[in-house]
Recover the amino acids of this structure.
């Protein structure tokens, strides 16, 4: 028994940190209906601000902590509340795209400032021994963190029970419109919820960095996964249960890490614990207990293109000609490998397009599928299988995991699918990549098909595959399945009444999309003669989603714009800092695109246009004054603004 | 308090529900708003309380243009809207519902007032509002019209689905509110009862005002036509 005690102590301490983080996540989700995938990035930002204040600006730690929790957290909360409002009017898939964009932007910003390698984080809480349990010493830091966790939970519960603002927060969860009618502004109440949530996030980031004695943006960003593991136990509802959930996840994690020391095959399983908890939760929690918070928004259909058909055909023809000519063009030269990379990713982007735009579902692990595809290729070639067959097997290997994730998650709703895929992608990266059946410790050898070792010849083969996948997606969109899927994205309810099994359609498209992602990964893996775990960083799954969101709403634009943005342009830039900035720009643009998914920006833009058109008629101020001098200040001043263009939503 | 709706239009998404609405609620008076299902009564009240922004026209409260104000701002100006259905927070207790209805700092006073108006609520202060009977929930929703001492009260079918005895109780309560000097804009299914208490009547038909005047000017045929939804 005694050998478990250190693990229990560590587990409970880190669990308290997860719990604090989870409380922030659940509080903001419940009050605003926007699940912040970037919650871990907020934790990371808080930890880095603390690091700068304390270790770079040499402030005493209480000052730094107060600034982080009482200034940084609230400011972040105010910004996030505005973002949540911008995302409130779009379908779930785009809410997720929006917060994924935020994650990408924040993570890039942090990388830009602090670099992507981890730094030493000096523990700031007293490290002395508080007491010992059967010979294992428990230090003050651990005691303080645990007490802080319970104090935070207790304070929140009291706040919700006894204070008026806390009561109003529960009211806004029940019925925001009624809260407005009783005299409290829902916006104000939600702002406070985001402020508390972000402060909790910042606090948990600082504490987590302190328990790890290091600060690493990639690790901290993953705190969202631990948090949603804890939140699952709280059924995404109960705040006090979050702290319990956090401790359960923390304990499990440490106990698993102890048990697996004897089994190298299971190494890394402890890191996958939160995902396993989430997965079990999705399986066992009754559906009605996991309803999504917030208004369910139906996606608007993409309007038919304004460009007439012959012009479009001519445009595509020209694009194809340019694509055929690329290896010969003067600006390509040594950049040709980047074009080859881009071509392999066409398949990935159109498959993601099929999933997100056509069926309104989301996947945060598409790069994980690509990794599986690449691994399939490598291993099959190792057995001497011909290239084409190995690629197809790479794609097929993605179908079982796709089924495994999709079946429990799709039963619930878009948000839970997103969480399951994010968790799966991360588990794949942390648990599976290092195993011999995947990449192993080194890299996995791959080969190009015979006769294509030259980049230029290979370019044409890849172009052929890319065109074929675009055609495949176009055919699927126009097929019966495509019509079912579009109906799905418009209104799942209507389909259900038509007697078509929505869930079957969803699972089928998820598998097709995973299969295509696997193919693209296999092709990508064949480019450079070997693949390794670092090629398929899980964050890329989020980046590609952000890039897809900003690449237009049609298959053709997704196929052409997205790979160019992600592979060709960075290759010309070359400078890593500039490329991190580019990635940040992708994140920001994805947030903008997500908020605009239903034409949300039309309203402010129309207003702006209205106002500018007024301004054209002369300085409005001067005219107003003249009018007022004429017949006194009154409503008559109104006509100066000219006829109002009705602003429709 | 005077409410004036001037040339008002409103709707949801692309569809227009209300067109060219002109309506006045004079100070200290009871105005009944009658019309068929789907005529736009609820929509009109939602616009008047700021829940829905009009697409055209103006809203004046005591001569002041309040078009575009949000509901909580109008609450501060003395407007109280008891919405259709049950206007309570189901997962809060009765006491917590009353706390939210009251002005900050005045909670205990407000709870005492609510209990004096509806003694039945006093026995159930720590019950979850969502678990109370329909009539009790409606009393809780109506308590707001008393606690906040509003000067304009918008009531949307507050007697819907309740037992006759409770309906009597509610109408007594409304009469008391009217006596206290507040203006009432009343949407009711019990047409005759509404007409008994009303000083003025508006009939609304497919989003347009079909009749405006005193109850005595209205004959039963008009009301019938408005309710079956034929033009007058
Ligand atoms: N949220 C909404 N979105 C779209 N249309 C709506 C919405 N609410 C109401 N409508 C439509 O507006 C019209 C007027 O509805 P409203 O609720 O104002 O009628 P009403 O007069 O209150 O009817 P009832 O007597 O049944 O309560 C109806 O045709 C209704 O379908
Ligand atoms: Mg109604």
């Amino acid at each position: 028994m005694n050998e478990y005690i250190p693990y229990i102590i560590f587990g409970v301490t880190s669990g308290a940190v997860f719990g604090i983080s989870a409380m922030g996540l659940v509080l903001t989700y419940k009050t605003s209906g926007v699940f912040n995938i970037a919650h871990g990035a907020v934790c990371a930002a808080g930890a880095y601000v603390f690091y700068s204040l304390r270790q770079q600006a040499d402030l005493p730690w209480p000052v730094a902590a107060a600034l982080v929790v009482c200034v940084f957290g609230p400011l972040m909360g105010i910004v996030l509340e505005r973002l949540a409002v911008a995302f409130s009017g779009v379908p779930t898939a785009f809410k997720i795209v929006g917060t994924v964009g935020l994650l990408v932007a924040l993570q890039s910003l942090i990388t830009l400032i602090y670099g992507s390698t981890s730094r030493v984080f000096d523990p700031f809480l007293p490290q002395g021994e508080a007491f010992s349990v059967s010979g294992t010493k428990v230090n003050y830091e651990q005691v303080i963190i645990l007490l802080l966790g319970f104090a935070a939970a207790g304070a929140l519960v009291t706040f919700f029970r006894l204070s008026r603002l806390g009561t109003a927060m529960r009211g806004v969860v029940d019925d925001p419109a009624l809260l407005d009618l009783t005299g409290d502004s829902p916006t104000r109440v939600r702002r406070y919820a985001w402020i508390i949530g972000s402060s909790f996030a910042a606090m948990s980031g600082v504490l987590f960095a302190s328990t790890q004695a290091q600060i690493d943006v990639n690790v901290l960003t993953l705190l969202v996964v631990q948090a949603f593991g804890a939140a699952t136990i709280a059924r995404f509802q109960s705040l006090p249960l979050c702290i319990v959930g956090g401790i359960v996840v923390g304990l499990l994690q440490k106990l698993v890490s102890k048990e697996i020391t004897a089994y190298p095959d299971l190494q890394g399983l402890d890191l996958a614990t939160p995902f396993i908890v989430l997965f079990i939760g999705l399986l066992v929690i009754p559906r009605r207990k996991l309803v999504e918070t917030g208004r369910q928004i139906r996606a608007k259909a993409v309007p038919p293109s304004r460009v007439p058909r012959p012009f479009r055909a001519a445009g595509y023809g020209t694009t194809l000609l340019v694509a055929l000519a690329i290896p010969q063009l003067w600006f390509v030269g040594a950049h040709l490998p980047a074009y080859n990379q881009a071509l392999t990713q066409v398949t990935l982007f159109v498959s993601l397009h099929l999933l997100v735009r056509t069926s309104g579902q989301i996947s945060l692990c598409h790069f994980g599928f690509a990794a599986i595809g690449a691994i399939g290729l490598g291993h099959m070639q190792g057995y001497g299988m011909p290239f084409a067959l190995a690629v197809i097997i790479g794609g097929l290997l993605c179908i079982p995991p796709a089924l495994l994730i999709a079946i429990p998650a799709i039963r619930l709703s878009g948000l839970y699918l997103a969480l399951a895929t994010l968790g799966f992608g991360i588990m794949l990266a942390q648990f599976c990549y290092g195993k011999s059946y995947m990449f192993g410790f080194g890299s996995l050898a791959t080969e190009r098909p015979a006769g294509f070792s030259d980049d230029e010849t290979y370019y044409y083969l890849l172009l052929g595959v890319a065109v074929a996948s675009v055609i495949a997606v176009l055919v699927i969109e126009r097929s019966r399945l495509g019509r079912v899927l579009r109906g799905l994205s418009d209104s799942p309810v209507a389909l259900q009444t038509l007697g078509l099994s929505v869930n079957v359609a969803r699972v089928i498209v998820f598998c097709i999309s995973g299969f295509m992602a696997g193919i693209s990964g296999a092709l990508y893996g064949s480019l450079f003669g070997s693949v390794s775990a670092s090629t398929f960083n899980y964050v890329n799954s989020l980046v590609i989603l952000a890039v897809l969101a900003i690449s237009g709403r049609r298959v053709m634009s997704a196929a052409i714009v997205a790979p160019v943005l992600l592979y060709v342009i960075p290759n010309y830039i070359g400078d890593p800092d500039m490329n991190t900035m580019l990635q940040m720009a992708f994140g920001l643009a994805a947030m903008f695109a997500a908020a605009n998914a239903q034409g949300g920006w039309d309203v402010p833009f129309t207003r702006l246009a209205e106002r500018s058109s007024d301004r054209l008629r002369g300085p409005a101020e001067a005219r107003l004054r003249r009018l007022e001098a004429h017949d006194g200040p009154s409503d008559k001043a109104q006509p100066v603004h000219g006829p109002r263009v009705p602003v429709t939503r | 308090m005077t409410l004036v709706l001037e040339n008002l239009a409103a709707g949801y998404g692309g569809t227009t529900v209300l067109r060219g609405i002109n309506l006045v609620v004079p100070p200290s008076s009871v105005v009944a708003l009658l019309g068929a299902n789907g005529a736009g009564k609820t929509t009109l009240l939602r616009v008047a309380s700021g829940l829905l922004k009009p697409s055209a026209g103006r809203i004046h409260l005591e001569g002041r243009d309040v078009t575009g104000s949000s509901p909580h701002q109008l609450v501060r100006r003395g407007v109280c809207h008891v919405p259709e259905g049950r206007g309570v927070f189901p997962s809060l207790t009765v006491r917590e519902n009353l706390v939210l209805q009251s002005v900050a700092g005045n909670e205990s006073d407000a709870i005492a007032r609510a209990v004096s108006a509806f003694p039945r609520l006093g026995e159930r202060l720590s019950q979850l509002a969502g678990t109370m009977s329909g009539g009790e929930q409606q009393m809780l929703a109506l308590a707001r019209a008393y606690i906040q001492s509003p000067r304009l009260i918008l009531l949307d079918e507050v007697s819907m689905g309740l037992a006759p005895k409770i309906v009597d109780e509610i109408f007594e309560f409304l009469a008391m509110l009217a006596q206290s000097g507040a203006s009432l804009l009343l949407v009711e299914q019990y047409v005759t009862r509404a007409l008994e208490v009303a000083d003025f009547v508006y009939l609304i038909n497919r989003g347009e005002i079909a009749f405006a005047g005193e109850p005595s000017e209205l004959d039963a045929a008009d009301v019938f036509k408005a309710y079956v939804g034929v033009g007058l």
Remarks:
- Chain A has two domains: 2-294, 336-592.
- Residues 19 and 421 of chain A are 22 Å apart (CA to CA).
